[in-house]
Amino acid sequence: MLIFARQLDGPLTSLVKRVNSVVKAHEAAGLQALVVFLGKDLAALQPKLEAMAKKEALSIPLTTAVDADGPSSYKLDPSVQTQVLVYQQKTVQASFSFGSPTEADVDAVVKATEKMLAK
After folding, report:
1. What is the CATH classification number for the domain harbouring 12?
2. Fewer Cβ close by (within 10 Å): the C or N end of the chain?
3. Residues 14-26: what's their mean pLDDT?
4. How many of the other CB atoms lie within 10 Å of CB of 89?
């Protein structure tokens, strides 16, 4: 699972915590996740990411993109705050775009992930 985020806030933290739990629950199946933060002032964001990872006891990596808009090959929408790609063997199984993820959005991501794992 790959999460691209443009803002670190409470709703995103909820999404990341839930994804972290799902990854832990499905480690044996090889499930992994990565959160990539996009934007212009990423150096200032790094200490906040480290603090969040420690506070929430996250095992999934939080990182920043080299390019402020993310990898061009992903064709990310610059107007969307959070984009989630659920993929398996380089094939996207489900894609989600949110302004600020709600609990229903998080549930949809988890459901798509569990559906992918059931295949």
Report:
1. 3.40.30.10
2. C
3. 96
4. 5
